[in-house]
Amino acid sequence: MAQIFANGISLEYEECGPETGPAVLMIMGLGAQLVHWPDDMIETLAGSGYRVIRFDNRDVGLSHKFHDKRAPHPIAQVIGQAVGLKSLSPYTLADMATDAENLLHQLGIRQAHIVGVSMGGMIGQLMASHHPHRITSLTSIMSGTGNPSLPKADRKIARHLILPSKPLSDRGAIIDRTMTFYDLIGTQDPDKDVSELRARIEAAFDRCYYPSGLRRQIAAILSTGDFRPDLKKISAPTLVIHGSHDPLASVEGGKDSAANIQNAQLEIIEGMGHDLPKKFLPQISGLILTHMNRAEGGGLRQAAE
Question: How many CA atoms lie within 13 A of 261 on its CB side?
């Protein structure tokens, strides 16, 4: 792993796969670190000849923390924006999209395939709209458009995200609470093995536990609002993947992205929730590889400046 200075802040990143292969930038979701990407997916993409780059978004993991910036409570922010008050969010998703674009620039990468999940999918969509010269293709997974008319997250899940919870200092208790949240939003499968997920959550906790950044990232999503007009500017080949049983980001969000991006391909995975479960990884990785190879013109090409 390494750090690079991009868009005025430090970003932690890591690479795998051939350095001369076409670049793939992986953008994680709300409060999630680069280690949350399933190893099987990363190995599949890298093993197919792609230069895979993962990084920690601002305010998470080992990237820059905005310790001196406070974010409003989500409910107060929604009410304030509804009556025309200026957002108090320290930054927006567009700023995070610029982080990703500048990361590519600092690495000397002219263009890259973008794969974003959840909030990372929103960042990827804005990156494809605002920085089209950097995009070879876009894959947006279990994301949305900020459209206020879309179905909201399940109330129980929303409470976990926006209402203050009892502060915990015990490592095991914090990990148990995180596992409970992932169980709420994830694919419901009585046969699933949660040991790998727990190991990933434990690794993330030991790497960097920083709950303060979550509030600022939520504020960034809320302050960005409805960005459907931006999506109509996207010209890059786009793949939208969404689970049919996503209780956090409704499948209607994926449909809305595809409807607002010219010639976007929509793939709905039956039974998938708001996660990247092992049972669906071969299907998801296959869809992404087919999409990227098609954007490459059927063959891998050099992507460095």
Answer: 30
